[in-house]
């Protein structure tokens, strides 16, 4: 019986789920009469999440003018929408960090993901998108589908990785996955986002970051994650020369949609490298 995305999604809950605390916080923020004090009390129930949340909120990437030293202050200073993004980022890291697999080094996976998130936020600020911190989350979570495939269908994912390497570069991994299975890790990530009732923007950027033309509702955000995914590889290698790396090629449509061009590569990579250690420490403290 062939493996399908539905098979993988049906197995998700047996493997990983977002903390119940995130579910409750998300519900509370969606309520019209959400109480700031009540929200702070709920978050404070999880000391680990609280520590990560405060560290992330105080990082240079988010650039708050006031130091946040308590959950109550975080709720007031950050705002509800930004707070939900921060909680989601920390909750997703917490949910997935304990799931080892034999195909992907988790340290490398999260390094790439953090760089992608930092660069996506930088690019969002450059094009004046509101709530660019949501793009940090989009970049951070863009490859979660790959972790699921590595854990749930490791033989098939290993075959796809080998085919990609033999084809000349890991940038073709999603194409190799499609050839072998009829779907790729981006599509699996999109379904994961839907299954977890994540915001529509996250679902679309996760699903379409390798195929910007497929983004119907959030094309600019998806284009930014597409660019950030490539530049993250440059940041990992400390270079700004895409041609000299195995970074995925940037979709020409992504440049067109965002209005950005190659001049943004150097400052984006430099900013991400400057902020990386602090963000890594915040998320994995």
Task: Give a structural overview.
The radius of gyration is 18 Å and the shape is globular. It has 16 helices and no strands. The protein has two domains: 17-98, no CATH class; 101-285, Hypothetical protein af1432 (Orthogonal Bundle). The protein is mainly α and 285 residues long. Helix 10 packs across helix 11.
CATH architecture annotation of the largest domain: Orthogonal Bundle
Radius of gyration using CA atoms only: 18 Å
Assign the CATH topology of the largest domain. Answer: Hypothetical protein af1432
Helix content: 55-70%
Major pleated sheet: none
Order of helices and strands: HHHHHHHHHHHHHHHH
The span between the termini is: 42 Å
What is the oligomeric state here?
Answer: single chain
**Number of E-state strands:** 0
Q: What are the segments in which pLDDT stays under 50 over at least 5 consecutive residues?
A: none
Structural domain count: 2
Return the average pLDDT rounded to an integer: 87
Strand content: under 5%
So, the CATH homologous superfamily of the largest domain?
Hypothetical protein af1432
Counting helices, strands and paired strands, the structural category is: mainly alpha
């Amino acid at each position: 019986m062939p493996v399908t995305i539905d098979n993988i999604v049906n197995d998700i809950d047996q493997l990983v789920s977002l903390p119940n605390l995130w579910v409750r916080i998300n519900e509370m923020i969606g309520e019209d009469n959400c109480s700031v004090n009540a929200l702070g009390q709920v978050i404070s129930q999880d000391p680990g999440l609280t520590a990560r949340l405060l560290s992330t909120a105080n990082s240079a990437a988010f650039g708050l003018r006031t130091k946040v030293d308590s959950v109550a202050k975080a709720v007031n200073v950050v705002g509800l929408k930004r707070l939900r993004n921060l909680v989601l980022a920390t909750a997703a890291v917490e949910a997935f960090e304990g799931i080892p697999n034999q195909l992907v080094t988790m340290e490398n996976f999260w390094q790439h993901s953090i760089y992608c998130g930092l660069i996506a936020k930088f690019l969002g600020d450059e094009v004046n998108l509101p709530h660019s911190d949501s793009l940090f989350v989009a970049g951070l979570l863009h490859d979660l589908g790959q972790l699921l495939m590595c854990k749930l269908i490791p033989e098939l994912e290993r075959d796809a990785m080998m085919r990609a390497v033999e084809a000349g570069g890991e940038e073709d991994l999603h194409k190799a996955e499609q050839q072998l299975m009829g779907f790729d890790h981006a599509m699996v990530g999109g379904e994961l986002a839907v299954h977890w009732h994540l915001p529509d923007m996250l679902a679309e950027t996760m699903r379409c970051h390798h195929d910007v033309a497929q983004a119907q509702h959030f094309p600019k955000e998806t284009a930014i994650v597409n660019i950030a995914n490539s530049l993250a590889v440059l940041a990992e290698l400390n270079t700004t020369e895409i041609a000299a790396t195995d970074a995925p090629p940037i979709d020409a449509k992504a440049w067109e949609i965002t209005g950005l061009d190659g001049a943004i590569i150097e400052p984006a990579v430099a900013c991400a490298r400057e902020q990386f250690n602090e963000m890594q420490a915040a998320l994995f403290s």
